[in-house]
Amino acid sequence: MASENARPEVTQTVSFRTDRPQTVGPDAPELPFPIKLSGPVQRGFGRGGKDLGCPTANFPDESLPPMSSVTKTGVYYGYARIYCPEHEKTPLCDEDSKVLPMVMSLGWNPFYKNERMTAEIHILHEFQRDFYGFEMKALVLGYIRPELDYTSREALIEDINTDKRVALNSLGRPAYEKYISDGHF
């Protein structure tokens, strides 16, 4: 179980990891999955898009208990959807408001020496605009890997790209695809 007060021991990488599986998890989600999350998208540290080429949508701290109380830190996969507030003058386009595959980092981001636990979601889609303050709902369906402390930014980026491929492969199974139309969304 992860806790905001207890930072877990984290393995440090010394080289690129080349032997990762391309699909993870059972053929259908098993407990504690699916885990439902929701909350407004807030600004994070700005590192995802600028430093890593992987922009993230961050949940506020009060959205974390459903995850942090039943899981460990690491990278997860599932689906997410962004909802445009009614008062927004420029709504999202149809493609940007669909249920889309995502990867999520839950943890301390040891490479960056975070002081608090964060939940950062990268939706596997090229959005036409920012959506800070919009509502995001996510359905976490499986676990990819533990949180690691990288010795280089390049190694971190390589693993992030592998995480994206693993998420898409894992979500491509029929028992996972059905969650696109889950009532949570």
UniProtKB/TrEMBL annotation:
InterPro entries from the UniProt entry: Riboflavin_kinase, Riboflavin_kinase_bac/euk, Riboflavin_kinase_dom_sf
SMART domains: Flavokinase
GO MF, one example: ATP binding
Metabolic or biological pathway: Cofactor biosynthesis; FMN biosynthesis; FMN from riboflavin (ATP route): step 1/1
PANTHER family: RIBOFLAVIN KINASE, RIBOFLAVIN KINASE/FMN ADENYLYLTRANSFERASE
Record domain Riboflavin kinase: where: 30-172
Native species: Piloderma croceum (strain F 1598)
SUPFAM superfamilies: Riboflavin kinase-like
Gene Ontology cellular-component annotations: mitochondrion
Record protein name field: Riboflavin kinase
EC number: 2.7.1.26
Function in brief: Catalyzes the phosphorylation of riboflavin (vitamin B2) to form flavin mononucleotide (FMN) coenzyme.
Gene Ontology BP terms: FMN biosynthetic process; riboflavin biosynthetic process
Chain residue ranges for the region called Disordered: 1-33
Family according to the record: Belongs to the flavokinase family.
Record keywords, A-Z: ATP-binding, Flavoprotein, FMN, Nucleotide-binding, Transferase
